[in-house]
Amino acid sequence: MTVTVRILIVEDEAVLRKNLARLFLREGYEVTTASNRAEALGELSRARFGALLLDVKLPDGDGLELLAALGPSQRPPRTFVMTASSTPETETRAKDLHVQRLLRKPLDLTRLLGIVGKALCSAEASP
Prior knowledge:
Elements: E1 6-10, H1 14-26, E2 30-34, H2 37-46, E3 51-55, E4 57-58, E5 61-62, H3 63-69, E6 78-83, H4 88-96, E7 101-104, H5 109-125
Parallel strand pairs: 1-2, 1-3, 3-6, 6-7
Antiparallel strand pairs: 4-5
């Protein structure tokens, strides 16, 4: 039995958000998108996701603050943070929030797909 993994993509740049959604849809993932923190919170309250791709800088606040505000039952088991301007503080915050991987923009989409796929496969293999 094949289980479809649900991914929530939170990215305010419309073109990148659509390209990421298409990329993961083509690979068989179920994809939901949000353009800001408020939309993401709504989606996270309605459904469970296997992975979260989260931009740090969103129009209505910091993506890492969104992650910090989520309760354990709302937080997807695999979170990948995307940022164009990584700082040591961002890296520390991401690590403290148990982010699977901090990804720097511009994104290499083939590499991103491999990183997410490998993390999700290892999650399925663990007890």
